[in-house]
Amino acid sequence: MDRPLLKTFTLFVLVLLVVMVTGCKPDTDKIVVFHAGSLSVPLKEMAKEFEARHPGVHIQLESTGSLTCVRKITDLKKPCDVLAVADYALIDELMIPQYADYNIQFASNELALGYLKEKPIAQHLTSDNWHEILLNPKVHYGRADPNQDPVGYRTVIALGLAEKMTDHDSLQHQILKKDNKFIRPKGTELLPLLEVGAIDFIFNYRSVLMQHGLGILPLSDSLNLSHPELDDWYASSCTEVNGTTQNEMIQVCGEAMVYGLCKPKSSLHPLTDEFLKFIVTEGRDILQKNGQPALNPTLTAKSTTKPSWF
C-alpha cells in the first residue's frame, strides 16, 4: 500500500474509532425526562432551577401523553432517567417490576371544561347545562385520545358518571361520537384549536387551563375525579384503553387523580436521584404556584424497593 493511501486509510480508521467510542458513551450531561403534557409548565420551571444549581447539566424534557411516555420505555426501549405520568396506576401496572422498582405519588389535579373567556356562548354555560350545550350541533369541543393520555380516558369516565347522574340516556355515547376530528394525542394539543376558534370547549386539567389563562367551568365533585372519598362512585364508570402495546387492552376505572413518578431501570445519569428528590421537595411549591395540588410523596404498595434518598 503506497503512503498516501496508507495515510488515508489510517485517518479513516481513527475517525471510525472516535465515532464508535463517542457514540457508545452515555451522555452524562443530560437528564432525560418523559412526562405528561400537563406537567410541562411546572417541570420547565423545576428544570431551570435545577440546571442553575448544577452548571453543565441539561434537563431534556419530552412531553407526550402519559400512556405514550410509558410505551416509549416498554415498547420502544428508549432510555429515560425520570418518568412522570398523570396517572400513577400506569407505573404500577405497566412499569413495575420489569422497568422500574418504585412509584411515588406526588401530585393531583381535577377535570374541568375550558373555553375562551370572550366566547359569547360561554356566557350561557353552567354546571347544570354544559352537557346539553356540548350536544348542540353548532358547538364543537375537543378531547384527548384515551389510548395515549389519561385526561382522555378520564373524560370518557366523567361522561359515564354524568350519564348516571342525569335522566339523559346514552349521554356518554352521544357526546363521544361527536366531534371526533378534534381528538388529539395529548390534552395540551387542544389549546391551539381553542385559540384559533376551531372548537369552543375542551376537557382538560384545571391546572392546564389556569396556566393558559382560559375560562374554567369547574365540574361537580361527583365528576371532576379529584376527591378520594368518592372513589367508590368514580369506580362505577370504566373504559378500555391500549396497554403497553396497541395490541393489548387494559381496563381503567374512575379514581381520584394522582400523578406518579419513578426512575426507570434504563436511567444512566448520576444526578437522577437528586432531581427526583428536588421534584418531590422544593418542586412542591412550583406545582402549587401553577395551580396543581402537591401531595405528600408516598410510595405505592406495588413498589418493590424504597429509593435511598426517599
Detail the topology: elements first, then pairings.
Elements: H1 3-24, E1 30-36, H2 40-53, E2 58-64, H3 66-74, E3 82-85, H4 88-94, E4 104-107, E5 111-115, H5 130-134, E6 141-144, H6 150-165, H7 171-176, E7 183-184, H8 191-195, E8 201-205, H9 206-211, E9 215-218, H10 231-234, E10 238-242, E11 249-253, E12 259-262, H11 272-280, H12 283-289, E13 294-299
Helix pairs in contact: 2-12
Describe the structure.
This protein has twelve helices and 13 strands. Strands 2-1-3-12-4-13 form a six-stranded mixed beta sheet, sandwiched between helices. With 310 residues, the protein is α/β, with parallel strands linked by helices. The protein starts with a helix and ends in an 11-residue tail after the last strand. The protein folds into two domains: 25-108 and 259-299, D-Maltodextrin-Binding Protein, domain 2; 111-240, D-Maltodextrin-Binding Protein, domain 2, CATH 3.40.190. The model is unreliable at 4-27 (pLDDT under 50).
